[in-house]
UniProtKB/TrEMBL annotation, chains A, B:
InterPro entries: DNA-bd_HTH_TetR-type_CS (IPR023772), Homeodomain-like_sf (IPR009057), HTH-type_TetR-like_transc_reg (IPR050109), HTH_TetR (IPR001647), Tet_transcr_reg_TetR-rel_C_sf (IPR036271), TetR_C (IPR011075). Residues 43-62 bind DNA. Residues 19-80 form the HTH tetR-type domain. Keywords: DNA-binding, Transcription, Transcription regulation. It comes from Actinomadura rubrisoli. This is TetR/AcrR family transcriptional regulator.
Length: 199, 199
């Protein structure tokens, strides 16, 4: 009876054993990716050893190292919050704060390493942009687009430029460097109103 | 006589043999630094082997690997052009174009790797910022400061924020990704005038 109970308990809430394995695999991938050698340090063998699972457990879920890395990166980078839509400024501040808070994450360096390795691993980088980055940029583009439509932002605004002007100053520093208090708001206000003296 | 002539010739224009060695050492350091493992791939041994010099030749000039790396990075990153001073906009466009052109450089990835390794090599990163980055940011700060003094830019402008808003959008992409035509000018204009609709 005990055996059966244990077995049922282990299967019941969403197959916890397999979930535990997946979590360990993702965590091991991110740990390796955050190391100095970045993408070069990640192999199915190394992940299996670090996660304490067999290689077949990994291959059952991910066809190759690249798919595993992109999945792990997507797990580590939460979607951006859907902004409240009160005003363009409030929405942008909300998003800028979220971007700025991400620097504190344990695995911030993974992303730096993947972008730094883009030339060496162009397909991985392309897939990373498609799966992880573009959906996040879509949230930003939508806010800017709504602002153009509501008349808050310039007609004909280049949305890509707007996204770059917001994200650039919030991501350019080394992963460990935090921004000063109020930085996210300051970036948004400089972006909205510019730095030219009022006439 | 031939021997003497050759000897004089070899010594005459700025000790070419030692200059050749230095050039080879710097080049080898940058090649290693641009590789996937970044800073971890650079050792005095590896540089000596790649440059075809003895380790003592390196130690005669640089006390350690960190000093060599910072010197090599400073060599690879030319100083920013001194802007003409015609107007803040023209100066900023000139600097933004220079920053944007640097992506095409062979060794662009070195810088990405050093910043990505900042947590692991905090002293190297600090020295890199001090020797290579800060003098470049000084050029940008000076242009903004002049703009505030001339009344072209807002009084009380946060110079650090202004620098970040200019440099961020021009450096955030992967090293191999080029910017569209006119991007540098578009960044400067968005920075100066903002993206808010005129009232």
């Amino acid at each position: 009876m005990t055996e059966l109970t244990d077995g049922s308990a282990a299967r019941a809430p969403g197959r916890p054993r397999s979930e535990r394995a997946e979590k360990a695999i993702v965590e091991a991938t991110l740990d390796l990716l955050a190391a100095e050698s970045g993408v070069a340090a990640v192999s199915i063998e190394a992940v299996a050893a670090r996660a304490g699972v067999g290689k077949t457990t990994i291959y059952r879920r991910w066809p190759n190292k690249e798919a595993l890395i992109v999945h792990a990166l997507a797990t580590a980078k939460a979607p951006l919050p859907v902004p409240s839509g009160a005003s363009v400024r409030e929405d942008l501040v909300e998003l800028a704060r979220a971007l700025s808070a991400e620097r504190r994450r344990k695995h911030a360096r993974c992303f730096w390493n993947v972008v730094g390795s883009a030339e060496k691993h162009p397909e991985l980088y392309a897939r990373y942009r498609q799966v992880v980055i573009e959906p996040r940029r879509d949230v930003l583009r939508a806010v800017l687009q709504r602002g153009v439509e509501s008349g808050e932002l310039r007609a004909g605004l280049d949305l890509e430029l707007g996204v770059a002007m917001l994200v650039g100053p919030l991501t350019m520093r080394a992963p460990m460097e935090l921004f000063p208090e109020g930085y996210a708001e300051a970036v948004v206000d400089a972006l909205l109103d510019g730095i030219r003296a009022p006439k």
